Amino acid sequence: YEIYLNGLTGRHPPYSAHVAELERAARERLDPGAYWYVAGSAGTGATDRANREAFDRWRIVPRMLRDVSVRDLDTELFGRTYPAPLALAPVGVQSIVHPQGELATSRAAAALGVPMVLSTASSHTLEEVAEADGPRWYQLYWPHDDEVTLSLLERARKSGYDTLVVTLDTWTLAWRPNDLDRAYLPFLRGTGLAIPLSDPVFRSRLARPVEEDPDAAIMQWVPMFNGRAHTWDQLSLLRDNWEGPIVLKGVQHADDARRAADAGMDGVVVSNHGGRQVDGALASLDALAPVAEAVGDRLTVLFDSGVRSGADVFKALALGARAVLLGRPYMWGLANGGEDGVRHVVRSILAELDLTLGLAGFRTPADLDPSVLERA
Ligand code: FNR
């Protein structure tokens, strides 16, 4: 009603309520390399499309005449209560869409009380981003130099990041035609390397200081985290050196989720990286229910890839996610309006979730289970 009431006095909203419209406006503002880096996906885009189609195959079955005037989106994750079942997914190199990048995103997240998952590929250091005093999670791109890994974990801990998200699906970069055609990889321009380039242990590995030879530093970082996979037995290094919850991101098979539980992890993010890694991989939403059935009683199951609306969040919660991570939509908000734009997108999706919940006859996310949906 805030928007409609403003409209009565001639004040119209600065941003569209359609995510697709925000994307169109962002496309007009951004240079094509930056736009396609964010919008693009792997290969033919089959998995990116599959992510969306999977949402369309489920329909909500609304129920009437229930006491649902007051809803409550509060969500407990890893022993802490958040105001909504939503976090901002780790998205690297945010300064390619807005100069304030992750600083703007972290202020928006802090204002709303939702967790921001800061990417290792951030354009600002984790200490700078920590100045916004909201819930902070840190996403690790796991280096193949244990001392660098431990240094990143220590910096994250000291700066108040309490939950570690370890991304498994991007140990090497996939075939991304949009970026290949433009020869556009922000990391190779240094955008997105603020965390390693400011790391004392990484810096001690360099033959010459970063300031004197930034290109050599970049070329030394890339193979340190990209090109070789880790294996299950190596997770103990992280478990032994991180006291808080650890969440594995990029899980798509129930057996991998079971192994995560066996390895002492606290959660998984069912994700295919927004269709940016294995083109032809199954839709993330189709991977969700089997994972939730396998480990829902042992792990906190989170979800991302393809969420574009409050109704999508509702469906993911019904299929077993405790909360969702939002990816590209908040980047379109950031591109259009910095901190304010991110806040707009998150508030809009949460407002729609709240309305969908109530209009479908439910009061809280915990009321949802697969029986509230039907296959279209
Ligand atoms: C990502 N994602 C990502 N994930 C991660 O763990 N670390 C990262 O640095 C990045 N960087 C990144 C950049 C860009 C431009 C995009 C679009 C995505 C993946 C992200 O966390 C999430 O899994 C997807 O964005 C979810 O899909 P949707 O919501 O974008 O469809």
Give a description of the structure.
- By secondary structure, the chain is an alpha/beta fold.
- 43% of the residues lie in helices and 12% in strands.
- It contains 16 helices and twelve strands.
- It has helices at residues 2-8, 19-29, 32-39, 46-56, 101-112, 126-129, 146-158, 177-182, 194-197, 200-204, 214-225, 235-241, 254-262, 284-295, 310-318, 328-359; strands at 58-60, 75-77, 80-82, 86-88, 116-118, 136-140, 163-167, 246-251, 267-270, 300-303, 323-326, 373-375.
- It has an eight-stranded parallel β-sheet. The protein has a two-stranded antiparallel sheet with strand order 1-12. It has a two-stranded antiparallel ribbon with strand order 2-3.
- The radius of gyration is 20 Å and the shape is globular.
- The structure holds ligand FNR.
- Ligand FNR binds next to helix 3.
- Belongs to the FMN-dependent alpha-hydroxy acid dehydrogenase family.
- It comes from Planobispora takensis.
- Keywords: Flavoprotein, FMN, Oxidoreductase.
- This is L-lactate 2-monooxygenase.
- Residues 11-376 form the FMN hydroxy acid dehydrogenase domain.
Helix content: 40-55%
- What's the arrangement of strands in the largest beta sheet? 4-11-10-9-8-7-6-5
Report the average pLDDT across residues: 97
**Overall spatial form:** globular
- Figure out the total of helices: 16
Low-confidence stretches: none
Q: Secondary-structure element sequence?
A: HHHHEEEEHEHEHEHHHHHEHEHEHEHE
Say which molecules are bound, naming each kind only once.
ligand FNR
For this structure, the quaternary state is single chain
**Strand segment tally:** 12
Quickly give the structural class. Answer: alpha/beta
Beta-strand share of residues: 5-15%
Please give the radius of gyration in angstroms.
20 Å
Distance between the termini: 31 Å
What's the main sheet like? 8 strands, parallel
InterPro entries: Aldolase_TIM (IPR013785), Alpha-hydoxy_acid_DH_FMN (IPR012133), FMN-dep_DH (IPR000262), FMN_HAD (IPR037396), FMN_hydac_DH_AS (IPR008259), LMO_FMN (IPR037350)
GO molecular function, one term: oxidoreductase activity
Organism: Planobispora takensis
Domain FMN hydroxy acid dehydrogenase: 11-376
